[in-house]
Amino acid sequence: MMQTGTLVVLWALAGSALLLVVSANQEQYERFLLQHVDANPSGRDDKYCNDRMRYMLRRDHRENNREGPIICKTTNTFIHENTNDIRAVCAEEDIGGGLHKSRRSFQITTCKAHGNKSLQNCRYRATRSYRDIVIGCDEEGFPVHLDETRIRVRRGGGASGSS
Is 61 a residue of the active site? Predict the structure, then answer.
């Protein structure tokens, strides 16, 4: 039989491992929110993209202890909806690869870089649309990845899936 002390140590180790997993999942979710969610944007034009991308890249660089220069991200999409509605997409049917497609469209802004790749000189062009989103979710039902490759925008601003 196991000693009480051994059981206490095993429970402590299991609890520590669980905290590490929860912490990692929380960090992924918070990074998803930083990179892809802006519920109340101030404009959705090129200036919005320039300002929001600079803020996002600086904060991501700092919070993830990255070294070296901050490089512009080629493309990034922001979803303009509250986090509960975005998280609800994780409860939708799995469309493959652990991805979930929304049943309704969301307002989004896609920012595409053009020109220089250093943060100070990087410029973005904004494209506004209203479309379905495809997200990857963790085991707890929190979004951690926006999969832009599964959605293509039709001419005229609509969207359709490209499974």
Answer: no
